[in-house]
Design a protein that fits this description.
Elements: E1 3-12, E2 15-25, E3 30-34, H1 41-49, E4 56-61, E5 64-65, H2 71-76, E6 79-81, H3 94-104, H4 113-123, H5 139-151, E7 157-161, H6 169-184, E8 188-192, H7 196-202, E9 205-210, E10 213-218, H8 220-224, H9 227-234
Parallel strand pairs: 3-8, 3-9, 6-7, 7-8
Antiparallel strand pairs: 1-2, 1-4, 4-5, 9-10
Bound molecules: adenosine-5'-triphosphate.
C-alpha cells in the first residue's frame, strides 16, 4: 500500500471539514476523490501532504507514519502535489521552473538538475522551447509545467487537485493520456476532481466525500450507482 489514512480529522473553528476519513491507496493505483463543493476534498489532500496537520487520525506513506510531518519533509520522502491554480515562477524559464523541483526534491546535491528537468519536460510532452518564460504560458502549458516540476522531485505518489479545471475537451483528452502515462511510469496518483468524465476514464477506485465524511468508495461504476452518492449530488427529492 502506498498511502493509508486512518480516521483523519481536520476542523476549521467549529466546522468539521474532514471527519474521520480512512482511505487505502494501493501502489500503482489512480485513486479519485470526489464530492460536492465544500465536501472537504482539498482539505483532505492538504492533511495528507502536510499542509494542515490532522487533529486526529494517522497518515501512513509507504508504511511510514507521516502524521504531522511538514510538507517539505513529505516531499523529500516521495510525495508531491499540484494545485488547482498553478503557481509558477513567471520570470523564470520553463526549464528553471522545473529545475526547482529537481533540486528541491532531492535531499542531496543533484548531479545534473537541468538534465533531469529537461527529461521531465520531454516526458510531459511540453510543446514549447524550454527557454520560454513561464509568465507567457497558457493554462494547459502551465499544467504540463507543473506536472513536470512535481515529477522532477522523484515522487512515488502524486496528488492532483482539480488538474482538469479550465481545459478544453481536446486538451482534456491529452491530459487523460498523460495521467495514465504518469501512472504507467511508476507514480501512484490521488486526484481531486469535479470532472466526472476524467474520473470515470482514469480512476481505478473512487472515494466520495460529503460534509467531511466518506460516504462511499468503490470502482467508478459502483460509485456512480450508489444511492448515497446520488443523494449527495442531487438531493433526496430527485432520487427515487
Ligand atoms: N483555511 C480554511 N479556513 C476556514 N475554512 C476552510 C478553510 N479551508 C477550507 N475551509 C472550509 O472547509 C470546508 C471544506 O473545504 P474544501 O476546500 O476542503 O472542500 P472541497 O471539497 O475541496 O470543495 P471544492 O470542490 O469547492 O473545492 C468548506 O466548508 C470550506 O469553506
Amino acid at each position: 500500500m502506498i498511502l493509508e489514512t486512518i480516521g483523519v480529522c481536520k476542523r476549521f473553528g467549529g466546522l468539521k471539514a474532514v471527519n474521520e476519513v480512512s482511505l487505502q491507496v494501493e501502489e500503482g493505483q489512480i485513486y479519485g476523490l470526489i464530492g460536492p463543493n465544500g465536501a472537504g476534498k482539498t482539505t483532505l489532500l492538504n492533511t495528507i501532504a502536510g499542509v494542515h496537520p490532522p487533529e486526529a487520525g494517522k497518515v501512513f506513506f509507504k508504511g511510514q507514519d507521516i502524521t504531522g510531518l511538514r510538507a517539505d519533509k513529505i516531499c523529500h520522502i516521495g510525495m508531491a502535489r499540484t494545485f488547482q491554480i498553478v503557481h509558477s515562477f513567471p520570470n523564470m524559464s520553463v526549464l528553471e521552473n522545473v529545475m526547482v523541483g529537481s533540486v528541491f526534491g532531492s535531499r542531496r546535491p543533484v548531479d545534473k538538475p537541468a538534465k533531469k528537468a529537461a527529461e521531465m519536460l520531454n516526458f510531459v510532452e511540453f510543446p514549447l522551447s524550454h527557454d520560454t518564460l513561464a509568465g507567457n504560458l497558457n493554462t494547459i502549458q502551465l499544467k504540463r509545467l507543473e506536472l513536470a516540476r512535481a515529477l522532477a522531485t522523484n515522487c512515488k505518489l502524486l496528488l492532483l487537485d482539480e488538474v482538469a479545471a479550465g481545459l478544453t475537451p481536446g486538451e482534456l483528452i491529452d491530459l487523460t493520456i498523460l495521467i495514465r502515462k504518469i501512472r504507467d511510469n511508476g507514480t501512484s496518483i490521488i486526484m481531486v476532481e469535479h470532472l466526472m468524465k476524467l474520473i470515470m476514464d482514469v480512476c481505478d477506485k473512487i472515494a466520495v466525500l460529503c460534509f467531511g465524511e466518506k460516504i462511499a468508495e468503490g470502482t467508478p461504476q459502483e460509485t456512480i450507482e450508489n444511492q448515497k452518492v446520488l443523494e449527495a449530488y442531487l438531493g433526496t427529492k430527485y432520487v427515487l
